[in-house]
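Subject: for your reference before the review

Hello V.,

The reviewers asked for a structural picture of the protein, and I figured it would be easier to keep everything in one thread rather than splitting it across files. Below is the amino acid sequence we used in the manuscript, unchanged from the supplementary table.
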Amino acid sequence: MLLRRSIPFAAALFLLLPTGVVHAQSDQDRAAARSLATQGAEAYTSGRFDEAIDLLGRAEALVHAPTHLLLIARAQARLGRLVAAKETYLRIVREELPPTAPSPFKRAQQDAREELAAVEPRIASLRIALEGAGGRKIGVKLDGQPVADALLGVHRPIDPGNHVVVVAPPGLAPIEQAITLADGERKEIKIPVPESPVAAPPPDGAGAGEGTWGGADTGVPPGAPSGTPERKTNMLLLGGGIAAAALGVGGVVVGSVFLAKGGSTQKEANDLNAKHGCEVQGGAGGLECGPLIQRRIETLDADAASQKTTGAIGLVTGGVLLVGGATMIVLELTSRPEPPSSAWIAPYVTPTGIGVRGAF
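And here is what came back from the structure prediction:
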Protein backbone atom coordinates (compact mmCIF):
# COMPACT_ATOMS: atom_id res chain seq x y z
CA MET A 1 0.00 0.00 0.00
CA LEU A 2 2.82 2.40 0.84
CA LEU A 3 4.43 1.99 -2.58
CA ARG A 4 1.17 2.74 -4.41
CA ARG A 5 0.68 5.91 -2.36
CA SER A 6 4.17 7.27 -3.14
CA ILE A 7 3.33 8.45 -6.71
CA PRO A 8 0.55 10.90 -5.76
CA PHE A 9 2.67 11.75 -2.76
CA ALA A 10 5.46 12.92 -5.10
CA ALA A 11 2.95 15.11 -6.98
CA ALA A 12 1.92 16.68 -3.68
CA LEU A 13 5.54 17.63 -3.01
CA PHE A 14 5.56 19.74 -6.18
CA LEU A 15 2.49 21.66 -5.07
CA LEU A 16 3.33 22.23 -1.43
CA LEU A 17 6.90 23.45 -1.28
CA PRO A 18 6.19 27.05 -2.36
CA THR A 19 3.52 27.63 0.34
CA GLY A 20 3.97 29.78 3.41
CA VAL A 21 4.06 26.76 5.71
CA VAL A 22 7.61 25.87 4.66
CA HIS A 23 10.56 28.20 4.80
CA ALA A 24 13.35 28.35 2.26
CA GLN A 25 16.11 30.87 1.80
CA SER A 26 15.46 31.48 -1.89
CA ASP A 27 13.55 30.39 -4.95
CA GLN A 28 16.59 28.34 -5.93
CA ASP A 29 16.40 26.44 -2.63
CA ARG A 30 12.69 25.73 -3.13
CA ALA A 31 13.25 24.55 -6.67
CA ALA A 32 16.17 22.33 -5.64
CA ALA A 33 14.18 20.88 -2.72
CA ARG A 34 11.24 20.13 -5.04
CA SER A 35 13.55 18.30 -7.46
CA LEU A 36 15.29 16.32 -4.72
CA ALA A 37 11.96 15.34 -3.14
CA THR A 38 10.64 14.10 -6.49
CA GLN A 39 13.80 12.05 -7.08
CA GLY A 40 13.53 10.67 -3.54
CA ALA A 41 9.91 9.62 -4.05
CA GLU A 42 10.84 7.87 -7.30
CA ALA A 43 13.73 6.06 -5.57
CA TYR A 44 11.35 4.94 -2.82
CA THR A 45 8.84 3.67 -5.37
CA SER A 46 11.62 1.68 -7.08
CA GLY A 47 12.71 0.12 -3.79
CA ARG A 48 15.99 2.05 -3.57
CA PHE A 49 15.41 2.97 0.04
CA ASP A 50 18.92 4.11 0.96
CA GLU A 51 18.96 6.45 -2.01
CA ALA A 52 15.49 7.71 -1.11
CA ILE A 53 16.62 8.55 2.44
CA ASP A 54 19.61 10.47 1.12
CA LEU A 55 17.67 12.49 -1.45
CA LEU A 56 14.74 13.29 0.84
CA GLY A 57 17.13 14.18 3.64
CA ARG A 58 18.79 16.73 1.33
CA ALA A 59 15.38 18.15 0.40
CA GLU A 60 14.44 18.42 4.09
CA ALA A 61 17.70 20.28 4.80
CA LEU A 62 16.63 22.92 2.28
CA VAL A 63 12.90 23.09 2.98
CA HIS A 64 11.14 21.47 5.92
CA ALA A 65 8.01 19.49 5.09
CA PRO A 66 6.32 16.64 7.00
CA THR A 67 5.90 14.91 3.66
CA HIS A 68 9.70 14.60 3.37
CA LEU A 69 9.98 13.08 6.80
CA LEU A 70 7.15 10.63 6.22
CA LEU A 71 8.83 9.06 3.20
CA ILE A 72 12.14 8.97 5.08
CA ALA A 73 10.49 7.13 7.98
CA ARG A 74 8.86 4.65 5.62
CA ALA A 75 12.19 3.96 3.88
CA GLN A 76 13.89 3.46 7.25
CA ALA A 77 11.20 0.97 8.26
CA ARG A 78 11.58 -0.92 4.99
CA LEU A 79 15.32 -1.26 5.67
CA GLY A 80 14.69 -2.64 9.16
CA ARG A 81 15.95 0.51 10.87
CA LEU A 82 12.98 0.61 13.16
CA VAL A 83 14.57 2.69 15.91
CA ALA A 84 15.46 5.45 13.45
CA ALA A 85 12.02 5.18 11.81
CA LYS A 86 10.33 5.63 15.18
CA GLU A 87 12.30 8.80 15.89
CA THR A 88 11.42 10.20 12.46
CA TYR A 89 7.74 9.41 12.95
CA LEU A 90 7.84 11.12 16.35
CA ARG A 91 9.23 14.30 14.77
CA ILE A 92 6.22 14.39 12.47
CA VAL A 93 3.67 13.57 15.16
CA ARG A 94 5.00 16.08 17.68
CA GLU A 95 5.11 18.98 15.23
CA GLU A 96 2.40 21.60 15.81
CA LEU A 97 0.96 22.42 12.43
CA PRO A 98 -0.80 25.77 12.03
CA PRO A 99 -4.54 25.72 11.21
CA THR A 100 -3.65 26.94 7.71
CA ALA A 101 -1.33 24.00 6.99
CA PRO A 102 -2.11 22.21 3.71
CA SER A 103 -4.23 19.11 4.02
CA PRO A 104 -1.40 16.81 2.70
CA PHE A 105 0.74 17.96 5.65
CA LYS A 106 -2.07 17.13 8.06
CA ARG A 107 -2.63 13.81 6.32
CA ALA A 108 1.12 13.06 6.57
CA GLN A 109 0.94 13.70 10.30
CA GLN A 110 -2.05 11.38 10.67
CA ASP A 111 -0.33 8.66 8.60
CA ALA A 112 2.79 9.01 10.75
CA ARG A 113 0.74 8.51 13.90
CA GLU A 114 -0.84 5.31 12.52
CA GLU A 115 2.44 3.91 11.16
CA LEU A 116 4.26 4.72 14.40
CA ALA A 117 1.76 2.56 16.28
CA ALA A 118 2.60 -0.32 13.92
CA VAL A 119 6.39 0.12 14.15
CA GLU A 120 6.80 0.46 17.92
CA PRO A 121 5.83 -3.15 18.83
CA ARG A 122 8.41 -4.47 16.34
CA ILE A 123 11.37 -2.76 18.03
CA ALA A 124 13.47 -5.24 20.01
CA SER A 125 15.21 -4.65 23.35
CA LEU A 126 18.71 -5.67 24.44
CA ARG A 127 20.52 -5.52 27.76
CA ILE A 128 24.33 -5.83 27.74
CA ALA A 129 25.71 -6.93 31.12
CA LEU A 130 29.42 -7.22 31.94
CA GLU A 131 30.25 -9.76 34.63
CA GLY A 132 33.43 -9.25 36.64
CA ALA A 133 34.13 -5.74 35.38
CA GLY A 134 34.96 -4.63 38.93
CA GLY A 135 34.65 -0.93 38.21
CA ARG A 136 37.22 -1.06 35.41
CA LYS A 137 36.84 1.21 32.37
CA ILE A 138 35.98 -1.30 29.66
CA GLY A 139 35.24 -0.37 26.05
CA VAL A 140 32.11 -1.91 24.54
CA LYS A 141 30.98 -1.71 20.91
CA LEU A 142 27.69 -2.76 19.36
CA ASP A 143 27.90 -3.38 15.61
CA GLY A 144 31.11 -1.37 15.52
CA GLN A 145 29.69 1.66 17.36
CA PRO A 146 30.80 2.57 20.92
CA VAL A 147 28.24 1.94 23.64
CA ALA A 148 27.89 4.66 26.27
CA ASP A 149 28.46 3.57 29.88
CA ALA A 150 24.94 4.73 30.70
CA LEU A 151 23.53 2.04 28.37
CA LEU A 152 25.39 -0.87 30.01
CA GLY A 153 23.31 -3.03 32.33
CA VAL A 154 19.96 -1.64 31.14
CA HIS A 155 17.56 -2.51 28.34
CA ARG A 156 17.87 -0.37 25.22
CA PRO A 157 15.80 -0.31 22.02
CA ILE A 158 17.47 -2.01 19.10
CA ASP A 159 16.57 -3.05 15.56
CA PRO A 160 15.63 -6.72 15.07
CA GLY A 161 18.21 -8.85 13.33
CA ASN A 162 21.82 -9.97 13.81
CA HIS A 163 24.14 -7.96 16.04
CA VAL A 164 27.70 -8.29 17.36
CA VAL A 165 28.90 -7.09 20.76
CA VAL A 166 32.65 -6.58 21.28
CA VAL A 167 34.13 -6.04 24.74
CA ALA A 168 37.75 -4.81 25.04
CA PRO A 169 39.13 -5.28 28.58
CA PRO A 170 42.36 -3.34 29.17
CA GLY A 171 45.43 -5.48 28.52
CA LEU A 172 43.42 -8.41 27.12
CA ALA A 173 42.22 -9.58 23.72
CA PRO A 174 38.74 -8.35 22.69
CA ILE A 175 35.78 -10.60 23.48
CA GLU A 176 33.22 -10.93 20.67
CA GLN A 177 29.70 -12.31 21.02
CA ALA A 178 26.91 -12.43 18.41
CA ILE A 179 23.18 -12.25 19.11
CA THR A 180 20.01 -12.36 17.00
CA LEU A 181 16.73 -10.69 17.93
CA ALA A 182 13.32 -11.16 16.36
CA ASP A 183 10.68 -8.45 16.02
CA GLY A 184 9.74 -7.18 19.47
CA GLU A 185 12.03 -9.69 21.22
CA ARG A 186 13.55 -8.77 24.59
CA LYS A 187 16.95 -10.35 25.34
CA GLU A 188 19.90 -10.05 27.70
CA ILE A 189 23.51 -10.84 26.90
CA LYS A 190 25.97 -11.50 29.73
CA ILE A 191 29.68 -11.32 28.93
CA PRO A 192 32.22 -12.50 31.57
CA VAL A 193 35.22 -10.18 31.70
CA PRO A 194 38.51 -11.82 32.78
CA GLU A 195 40.83 -10.11 35.22
CA SER A 196 43.37 -7.81 33.64
CA PRO A 197 47.07 -8.69 33.97
CA VAL A 198 48.50 -7.49 37.27
CA ALA A 199 51.52 -5.23 36.98
CA ALA A 200 54.62 -6.32 38.90
CA PRO A 201 55.12 -4.36 42.16
CA PRO A 202 57.96 -1.83 42.15
CA PRO A 203 61.24 -2.70 43.91
CA ASP A 204 61.65 -1.85 47.58
CA GLY A 205 62.10 1.83 48.11
CA ALA A 206 60.55 2.87 44.80
CA GLY A 207 58.23 5.83 45.22
CA ALA A 208 59.74 6.72 48.58
CA GLY A 209 61.69 9.67 47.31
CA GLU A 210 64.58 7.63 45.85
CA GLY A 211 65.26 6.78 42.25
CA THR A 212 63.84 10.07 40.96
CA TRP A 213 65.36 12.29 38.36
CA GLY A 214 64.41 15.92 37.81
CA GLY A 215 61.64 15.72 40.45
CA ALA A 216 59.70 12.87 38.74
CA ASP A 217 59.83 9.10 38.99
CA THR A 218 61.64 7.90 35.86
CA GLY A 219 61.97 4.24 36.80
CA VAL A 220 65.75 4.52 37.35
CA PRO A 221 66.87 2.24 40.20
CA PRO A 222 67.63 4.08 43.47
CA GLY A 223 71.14 5.47 43.52
CA ALA A 224 71.68 5.12 39.77
CA PRO A 225 73.67 8.03 38.33
CA SER A 226 72.04 10.58 36.09
CA GLY A 227 71.80 9.48 32.48
CA THR A 228 71.93 5.68 33.07
CA PRO A 229 69.32 3.48 31.31
CA GLU A 230 65.87 3.21 32.88
CA ARG A 231 64.57 0.05 34.49
CA LYS A 232 63.09 -1.21 31.23
CA THR A 233 66.43 -0.69 29.54
CA ASN A 234 68.11 -2.70 32.31
CA MET A 235 65.72 -5.55 31.66
CA LEU A 236 66.61 -5.35 27.98
CA LEU A 237 70.29 -5.56 28.91
CA LEU A 238 69.59 -8.63 31.01
CA GLY A 239 67.67 -10.17 28.11
CA GLY A 240 70.52 -9.25 25.76
CA GLY A 241 73.00 -10.91 28.08
CA ILE A 242 70.95 -14.09 28.19
CA ALA A 243 70.59 -14.07 24.39
CA ALA A 244 74.33 -13.47 23.90
CA ALA A 245 75.18 -16.29 26.31
CA ALA A 246 72.78 -18.62 24.51
CA LEU A 247 74.33 -17.75 21.16
CA GLY A 248 77.76 -18.27 22.68
CA VAL A 249 76.85 -21.75 23.87
CA GLY A 250 75.51 -22.52 20.41
CA GLY A 251 78.71 -21.22 18.80
CA VAL A 252 80.89 -23.37 21.07
CA VAL A 253 78.81 -26.45 20.32
CA VAL A 254 78.88 -25.84 16.56
CA GLY A 255 82.62 -25.14 16.65
CA SER A 256 83.29 -28.34 18.56
CA VAL A 257 81.21 -30.34 16.11
CA PHE A 258 83.08 -28.94 13.11
CA LEU A 259 86.47 -29.51 14.74
CA ALA A 260 85.54 -33.11 15.47
CA LYS A 261 84.27 -33.52 11.91
CA GLY A 262 87.50 -32.02 10.54
CA GLY A 263 89.59 -34.50 12.56
CA SER A 264 87.48 -37.37 11.32
CA THR A 265 87.81 -36.23 7.71
CA GLN A 266 91.58 -35.83 8.06
CA LYS A 267 91.86 -39.32 9.54
CA GLU A 268 89.92 -40.72 6.59
CA ALA A 269 92.36 -39.02 4.18
CA ASN A 270 95.38 -40.33 6.10
CA ASP A 271 93.97 -43.87 6.19
CA LEU A 272 93.29 -43.78 2.45
CA ASN A 273 96.78 -42.49 1.80
CA ALA A 274 98.38 -45.22 3.89
CA LYS A 275 96.23 -47.96 2.39
CA HIS A 276 97.16 -47.19 -1.20
CA GLY A 277 100.74 -46.02 -0.59
CA CYS A 278 100.10 -42.52 -1.90
CA GLU A 279 102.35 -39.55 -1.23
CA VAL A 280 100.09 -36.79 -2.42
CA GLN A 281 102.21 -33.98 -1.09
CA GLY A 282 105.38 -35.33 -2.71
CA GLY A 283 103.77 -35.94 -6.08
CA ALA A 284 104.57 -39.72 -6.17
CA GLY A 285 102.54 -42.73 -5.16
CA GLY A 286 102.54 -46.46 -4.99
CA LEU A 287 101.28 -48.80 -7.66
CA GLU A 288 97.76 -48.85 -6.16
CA CYS A 289 97.56 -45.06 -5.96
CA GLY A 290 95.82 -44.01 -9.12
CA PRO A 291 94.60 -40.51 -10.13
CA LEU A 292 91.13 -41.09 -8.68
CA ILE A 293 92.56 -42.10 -5.31
CA GLN A 294 94.83 -39.06 -5.27
CA ARG A 295 91.97 -36.68 -6.07
CA ARG A 296 89.89 -38.27 -3.34
CA ILE A 297 92.68 -37.76 -0.82
CA GLU A 298 93.11 -34.13 -1.92
CA THR A 299 89.36 -33.50 -1.56
CA LEU A 300 89.32 -34.99 1.93
CA ASP A 301 92.31 -32.87 2.95
CA ALA A 302 90.58 -29.70 1.69
CA ASP A 303 87.33 -30.62 3.45
CA ALA A 304 89.18 -31.31 6.68
CA ALA A 305 90.94 -27.93 6.53
CA SER A 306 87.64 -26.11 5.87
CA GLN A 307 85.87 -27.91 8.70
CA LYS A 308 88.66 -27.15 11.13
CA THR A 309 88.62 -23.48 10.15
CA THR A 310 84.86 -23.28 10.62
CA GLY A 311 85.15 -25.04 13.96
CA ALA A 312 87.85 -22.66 15.15
CA ILE A 313 85.78 -19.61 14.15
CA GLY A 314 82.73 -21.05 15.90
CA LEU A 315 84.71 -21.71 19.09
CA VAL A 316 86.23 -18.23 19.17
CA THR A 317 82.97 -16.42 18.35
CA GLY A 318 80.96 -18.58 20.73
CA GLY A 319 83.49 -18.06 23.47
CA VAL A 320 83.38 -14.28 23.08
CA LEU A 321 79.57 -14.22 23.11
CA LEU A 322 79.42 -16.61 26.06
CA VAL A 323 81.85 -14.56 28.13
CA GLY A 324 80.20 -11.26 27.16
CA GLY A 325 76.68 -12.53 27.87
CA ALA A 326 77.70 -14.06 31.18
CA THR A 327 79.36 -10.80 32.18
CA MET A 328 76.23 -8.80 31.39
CA ILE A 329 74.02 -11.21 33.34
CA VAL A 330 76.31 -11.13 36.37
CA LEU A 331 76.55 -7.33 36.31
CA GLU A 332 72.78 -6.97 36.06
CA LEU A 333 71.88 -9.54 38.69
CA THR A 334 74.48 -8.47 41.21
CA SER A 335 73.97 -4.73 40.85
CA ARG A 336 72.82 -3.11 44.10
CA PRO A 337 71.81 0.44 44.96
CA GLU A 338 74.88 2.51 45.64
CA PRO A 339 75.40 6.17 46.44
CA PRO A 340 75.53 8.36 43.37
CA SER A 341 78.97 8.52 41.84
CA SER A 342 80.52 10.64 39.16
CA ALA A 343 81.86 7.50 37.43
CA TRP A 344 79.76 4.63 36.04
CA ILE A 345 80.07 1.75 33.58
CA ALA A 346 77.47 -0.50 31.94
CA PRO A 347 77.53 -3.19 29.26
CA TYR A 348 75.47 -2.86 26.07
CA VAL A 349 74.38 -4.99 23.12
CA THR A 350 73.69 -3.70 19.59
CA PRO A 351 72.96 -5.52 16.32
CA THR A 352 76.60 -4.99 15.33
CA GLY A 353 78.36 -6.03 18.53
CA ILE A 354 78.68 -5.89 22.29
CA GLY A 355 80.75 -3.69 24.61
CA VAL A 356 80.68 -1.42 27.59
CA ARG A 357 80.10 2.29 28.07
CA GLY A 358 80.52 4.66 30.95
CA ALA A 359 81.66 8.00 32.31
CA PHE A 360 84.57 8.84 34.53
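For the response letter, the relevant points are probably these. The longest helix spans residues 231-276. Confidence is low (pLDDT under 50) at residues 14-24, 207-227, 280-284.

Happy to draft the paragraph if you're swamped.

O.
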